[in-house]
């Protein structure tokens, strides 16, 4: 029986992981396999989603989560060999990925027969301005979408949401547009009720020349960080960042991890569970436009966070 694929796309910090988390937490008896394709040497997203850093993690509701290591088609083939087989596969793309390239890979006849692409969901930060939709990558993500979900709708007024909705509909008239507060997207829009139905193949747009735009810069520490100093450091780095995320132990709360996220200029902190043995006390990924930030600058600024440890 074919296993339908849901492809989740969206720009850096749009809220893709929140949507996937919600899908896994509210599977309602569906066996869902989530594949997380993070941008960067440290796969923080896999840890946020499943509470583990590597491999395949079984969840209590029958779902599983795995990190994408290497070739996507090999990862899908491994999932399809699992017993019991998943009923649905969710692939979360990197925020800098052009989904049209991934769709092209999923049109491989061998994959399509076993795991056809059912739905493409594009998550859009509701605070995004209509002018921002001129970004070539974001436009490509939207033009591939069957469903567009506005995240962070509580941070923008009705007039702002309406303006963005009109701009999205002008760009992708065929898409269903929904609000997704806290990552809540109606499952009926994402998963087919008839799992025996095989969707029609998609039109594949011509492949565009690859253009590197972003780079990842990873920082780790074997010592805990001072939270007040970390907040100061992030404040200095934030104007140059497109995105940042990480896990770290603080001097103030030894033995406990904090989850840090920076997206759209907004930083958040949340509890992250117990510190695993034999891992760095701090691991943070910084994503910036190429050439805007250097490892030397990050090391110099972040070093100030641990001198008080």
From TrEMBL:
Q: Which GO terms describe its molecular function?
A: hydrolase activity; nucleotide binding
**CDD domains, A to Z:** CobW-like (cd03112)
* Record's protein name: GTPase
Q: Which reaction does it catalyse?
A: GTP + H2O = GDP + phosphate + H(+)
Q: Family, per the entry?
A: Belongs to the SIMIBI class G3E GTPase family. ZNG1 subfamily.
* A Pfam family reported for this protein in Swiss-Prot or TrEMBL: cobW
Q: Which UniProt keywords apply?
A: Chaperone, Hydrolase, Nucleotide-binding
Domain (CobW C-terminal) ranges: 214-306
Q: Does the keyword Hydrolase apply?
A: yes
Task: Look up the record and report any one GO term of the cellular component aspect.
Answer: cytoplasm
What InterPro entries does the entry give? CobW-likC_sf, CobW-like_C, CobW/HypB/UreG_nucleotide-bd, P-loop_NTPase, Zinc-reg_GTPase_activator
Gene3D superfamilies named among the record's database cross-references: CobW-like, C-terminal domain (3.30.1220.10), P-loop containing nucleotide triphosphate hydrolases (3.40.50.300)
Tell me, what does this protein do in biology? Answer: Zinc chaperone that directly transfers zinc cofactor to target proteins, thereby activating them. Zinc is transferred from the CXCC motif in the GTPase domain to the zinc binding site in target proteins in a process requiring GTP hydrolysis.
What is the native source organism of this protein? Bradyrhizobium valentinum
